[in-house]
Backbone:
């Protein structure tokens, strides 16, 4: 549970000290979307309808206060996440409801969940076709060299991930602000990292490093393939849409996925095994608003949006871990869910040391990003954001 993750600072500081503040050990986690969230988009009145006449689309300021608005503004929101997805309901829907309430109904939302306007959410939000969007780091793969960094993909362990998450959020106002967000006309409001990716397989149960030999895994991009190859396996590109059939037909032997994402896409129907204590990936989801749209809103509305986003941001990681504990129990009915022994995890992390250098060499400004991350991580250990 999250209480175990957020253990006493002095214990974590001793651990970090032994690991030289993350500079010498650990794995570079690969980008991973919570893709299991595609589905029905009709729940809670979120039917994809919109009123174009009332949709905010210009970037002229509407004044300082809510009273400066002549009529309600409807902001169009789109998401890959299913309407009933636990993170959508507990974060985005809670946020939009609070904004509407605090603005006395002057800011309303046209919800389009379940991928009804997808799949290219990056183009949708930066062009202003939608005002708000839930996007993942993976959407930036073709336009920004910081995809992996934005996913929280740096050395760490499950216990350290709450702090990894906070360190990366601080970087959104640092090295990422101009090069990623401003460059794409986007402002991140909330979101963050969910739970680590674990390793799932068909047929072969991974219990020792040697068990990876001869297996073929799905390569999600960045250093994900390198991670598997460093363990003795091979990796190949497989689109997410094709992953189920690839597993079912034996084209690939496994993948790395966040446990809460397995059930919604029915991967448990074709998978046999899943680890539960590997920290291979840290999926990142961000609730964002088009920057022109944000700047056009009254200052009072902007402040309300930021204040409410801060509340949901603090819950993002906690909710994900609580959901994972429930999903482990549920998935145990159809799959074998198990922990790797400590000596296997240690050898895995030792082999993954190389991925840090690999990533730095592949990314423009990679060394600067790593240095800033290390600084921010050390800062949040002493002064947690939440």
Residues:
């Amino acid at each position: 549970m999250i209480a175990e993750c957020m253990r006493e600072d002095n214990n974590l500081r001793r651990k970090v000290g032994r690991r030289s503040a993350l500079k010498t050990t650990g794995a570079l986690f690969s980008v991973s979307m919570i893709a299991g969230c595609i589905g029905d988009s009709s729940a809670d009145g979120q039917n994809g309808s919109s009123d174009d006449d009332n949709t905010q689309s210009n970037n002229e300021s509407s004044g300082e206060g809510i009273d400066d608005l002549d009529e309600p503004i409807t902001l169009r929101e789109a998401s890959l996440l299913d309407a009933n997805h636990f993170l959508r309901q507990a974060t985005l829907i809670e946020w939009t409801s609070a904004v509407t309430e605090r603005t006395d109904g002057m800011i309303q939302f046209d919800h389009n969940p379940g991928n009804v306007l997808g799949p290219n959410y990056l183009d949708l939000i930066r062009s202003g076709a939608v005002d708000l969007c839930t996007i993942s780091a993976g959407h930036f793969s073709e336009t920004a060299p910081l995809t992996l960094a934005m996913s929280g993909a740096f050395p760490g362990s499950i216990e350290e991930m709450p702090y990894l998450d906070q360190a990366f959020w601080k970087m959104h106002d640092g090295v990422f602000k101009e090069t990623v967000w401003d460059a794409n006309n986007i402002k991140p409001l909330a979101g963050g990292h969910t739970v680590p990716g674990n390793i799932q397989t068909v047929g072969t149960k991974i219990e020792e490093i040697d068990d990876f030999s001869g297996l073929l895994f799905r390569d999600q991009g960045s250093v994900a393939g390198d991670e598997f190859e460093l363990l003795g396996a091979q990796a190949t590109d497989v689109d997410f849409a094709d992953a189920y059939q690839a597993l079912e037909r034996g084209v690939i032997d496994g993948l790395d996925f966040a446990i809460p994402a397995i059930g919604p896409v029915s991967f448990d129907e074709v998978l046999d095994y899943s680890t539960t204590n590997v920290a291979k990936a840290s999926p990142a989801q961000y609730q964002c608003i088009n920057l022109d749209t944000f700047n056009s809103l009254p200052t009072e509305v902007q402040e309300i949006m930021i204040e409410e986003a801060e509340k949901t941001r603090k819950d993002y990681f906690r909710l994900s871990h609580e959901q994972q504990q429930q999903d482990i129990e549920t998935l145990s009915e159809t799959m074998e869910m198990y922990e790797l022994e400590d000596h296997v995890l240690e050898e895995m992390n030792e082999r993954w040391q190389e991925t840090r250098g690999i990533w730095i060499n592949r990314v423009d400004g990679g060394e600067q990003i790593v240095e800033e991350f290390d600084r921010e991580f050390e800062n949040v250990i002493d002064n947690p954001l939440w």
User: Anything to note?
Assistant: The first helix runs from residue 2 to 5. Residues 1-58, 142-153 have pLDDT under 50 and may be disordered. The chain has two domains: 2-23+196-281+325-382, 43-194+284-317. The chain has 15 helices and eleven strands.
